[in-house]
Task: structure prediction
Amino acid sequence: MEFKGAMGGLYRLTEWITRFAATNLLWALCSSPFLFFLIMKLIVMSQQLTNESLQMNWAMAIVAPLTLFPATAAMFTVVRKWVMGDSDIPVFRTYFAGFKQNYKQSLIGGLFYTLLTIVMYVDYTVYMTQFPNLQMIGVIMLILLIILFVSMFNFFSMVAHYHMSSRQIIKNAILLTLIRPFRVFSTLLGSAVLVYVGIRYPVLFIFFIPCIIAWFAFFNFYGTFLKMQEQLQKQQTDGELEGKEAAAEETKN
Result:
């Protein structure tokens, strides 16, 4: 039965709320080891327990590639379908199909991003605190760290959208961030606003915010993808026209 008017709008809104909430809960469940250590870190930080906070950092670094990255890749698999117009997919089945299919690539990517983040963060901290005359290097490390973090939006989108090797996906995610920064940095700003709202209303993290961020990130990525496809097709068309014109000129001569 299809509802129309205000009732139809309310019904569709309820459907989307359910989809986002279900996907977000699946993500939270599969990311639960990482989220547990994250919550513990926030608790020990509030109590100013430095050693325990450092231990939580290492615990998060260990479990992130195993849980957080595969769970996030699976969430991007679901939102990819939504962005591309297939909104009636079964969320549970699509999520775990994406989790299984992309586990290896997301694990490898998680190891790469986690290790590089640790190295860059340690370098940044050392240069900014122990070498006052070399703080410019620390600033450069911070900029590279931000670029690395932002490229993760493209990484998860590519894992969900392309069939490539892990090395190609990581390389292309970073390159796309550098050559097409506007959309991905707009994703970062939008995510920051959502996180700010979530800090004020923490329950939204459980049901909506990570999934909304994933949807927005893939929406921006897909817009970039379509634009690049359009430019590529235009170049191919222009090349074919130039070839035909050159052939015509040779025929006349």
Q: What stands out?
A: The mean pLDDT is 87.
